[in-house]
Amino acid sequence: MVVPRNHLAWTLMLLPFALWLVVFAYAPLFGLVAAFEDFSWGRPFVGAWVGLRNFAFLFADPFFRVAAVNTMFFALVKSVLIVSMPLFLAYAFRRASRNASFAYSGTVMVTHFSSWVVIGVAVRILASPQTWDIALRAGSLLNSPVDARWLFVLSDFLKGYGWVFFVYLVALRSFDPEYWEVAETEGASTLQTFVHVAVPLLAPVAAVVAVLTVTNVVDSTTDQALNLSHPGIYSATDVIGSYAYRTAIRSGHIARAVAASLVETGIRGAVVVATLLAGMKFLRRVR
Amino acid sequence: MRRTAGRFGIALFAMFTLILLSYPAVAFAWHAAAAPGLLSSMHDVLTRRGIYQGFGVSLLLVVVSGPLSVAMTLLASYAASNLSRRHFRVFVIIITIPLFVRAGLVPFYMVVRSVGLAGSPAAMIIPILGSPAMVLLFSHVFRRTDYVTVRDAARIDGAGELRVLTSILCPSSPWIVALPLVTAALEFWNSWIPAFLFVNDSRFYPLQIVIREMAAFSGSSLDVGMGHGAVSSNVLAAAGLLALVPSCLLAMLIAFHADDTIATRRLRSK
User: Fold this and answer.
1) Does A28 reach chain B within 8 Å, measured CB to CB?
2) Which of A46, B7, B38, B112 is most deeply buried (CB count within 10 A of its CB)?
3) pTM to 2 decimals?
4) Could you tell me which of B155, B96, B156 has the C-alpha nearest to residue A10?
5) Does B240 touch chain A (CB under 8 A)?
6) Could you give the CA distance from residue B163 to residue A171 in angstroms, rounded to a whole number?
7) Residues of A in contact with B243 (CB under 8 A)
8) Cis omega before residue A4 (within 30°)?
9) Which helix (H) or strand (E) holds A48?
10) Are A162 and B21 within 8 A, CB to CB?
């Protein structure tokens, strides 16, 4: 029996998403060409070609160089912490009761499902000396560049930790428990079981988690900076996303801001490719 | 003895992370409960015009945009699942690229402004309506052999494409509608960048922007070098607590339903 095919219906069903994809996912990518143009709102995507002039302005600006270094620092440190740390605890929880492990993961996932606006307010409350009613320092932790840098790392780690922990926990609980039982019967210690059994089993999941985390961490840091950063701590917490926002929307230098976005896209791409290569190498080694 | 010490260490670490990770709720509850008390703070929040208006806008965004986003996702996924293997591979590449290559805030701002959405409340909905990740997931789900068999049988019996999707595929598993709906609802509840960039009229501010504005004007009480204003930190904390409710519900829902999926997978593997 021949199955009827309705190509017109399929095209109509796909059309709204295809239009959305072209306008809001691909057009911004083509918009990056404005980094090489003299931008005007009258002709936003076809301005006069100015080559690398916008990049020359950008790299001459010390604030941009600071933002670029901070972006790379946050992308690397946060990604490593978010991907590796939950692995240990998920392994520890693999045999906990269903209710205990999922109540725990449910609680630690709340931060992941909240916006940076809400988390930002919580961080401000906790960073304020008034909350603790002590006078350890002159002001909030968010007023000192060094403290603020590590507070940024810690708060983003805590925001991403819950979800990654949950993914690892689900993956570990789906493996047959005989893996652990056999290793322990043979006399392997907990650490040996973790290194030689759990890590090779979890390696493909960890590789996927690493790529997704690295992709999102740059955007997440921009959200974080827009909610928590202020001029007093720009030297430690300003990132390219927040720099581009100020350059474009507050100062009106759209082309320069697009050039900054292009550099950010390049950094994100480089970190993703590096993670992919490292993940493939790691997978080959553990298998 | 060593094993007991190890278990004690793990339990201690778990408790530590639990306390750290519940910090927003703890911080908000603690601050909101300070004098004049939690109930008074919540009452103050719920009777402030800006906050309940923002709560209403956020709720409206979720109620209107959530189903729209689900419809767009499922229609596209179903249509794509009918593509030939070669075309499907091209489709997968096309929707995977935006997942990893993103242009950033300013090109997004340029595009939304160029299509004339700036200043309109629609700017809070349309630019974030689609979800390439969900389309990628469900187009693969609908290509599974069991779905293809049911789909083809329904077509031979004369069912139209929309009927196959809405009356046969969607009711076959609660997750097909629930997963994109819950994800989209949370996306719209938490979304603040489009409203921050494109909405000028304060009547259309969602809860996230209202909280952000409140935080910017409570500098004196939170000591972060911002402006001075009349909003007390109790009210700010109570508003934060209100904004956390959907996140808590979703986290618990996902955590406790994941076990069903795992149990099913284990049964299949045996």
Assistant:
1) yes
2) B112
3) 0.84
4) B155
5) yes
6) 36
7) 114-115, 117-118
8) no
9) strand A48-49
10) yes
Nearest to A20 among B130, B191, B252 (CB): B130
Contacts of B147 (CB under 8 A, 6+ apart): B81, B141, B169, B172
Question: How many residues can be counted in chain A?
Answer: 287
The half-sphere exposure of A277 on its side-chain side, counting CA atoms within 13 A, is 6
Nearest to A63 by CA among A230, A254, A235: A235
Q: Which residues in chain A have Cβ-Cβ distances shorter than 8 Å to B127?
A: 24
Sign of the alpha-carbon dihedral angle for A176, A178, A181, A187: negative
Residue A271 CA: distances (Å) to CA of A58, A155, A258: 21, 21, 20
> Would you call A13 and B258 a contact, using CB atoms and an 8 Å cutoff?
no
Length of chain B: 270
Instruction: Note which residues in 54-83 of chain B have CB less than 8 A from chain A.
Output: 72-73, 75-76, 78-80, 82
Compare all CA atoms of chain B with the CA of A141 and give the residue at the minimum distance.
Answer: B224
- Residue for token digits 């100062």? A251
The answer to whether residue A103 neighbours chain B at the CB level (below 8 Å) is: yes
CB proximity B166 to A under 8 Å:
no
Instruction: Compute the CA torsion angle B162, B168, B169, B173 (nearest 10 deg).
Output: 140
Residue A265 to residue B103, Cβ atoms within 8 A: yes
Separation between Cα atoms, residue B32 and residue A154, nearest integer Å: 24
ipTM: 0.84
Residues of chain B found within 8 Å of residue A4, distances taken between Cβ atoms: 155-156
In a mutational test of the A interface, the residue from B41, B61, B87, B106 whose CB has the highest number of chain A CBs within 10 Å is B106
Contacts of B185 (CB under 8 A, 6+ apart): B62, B66, B246
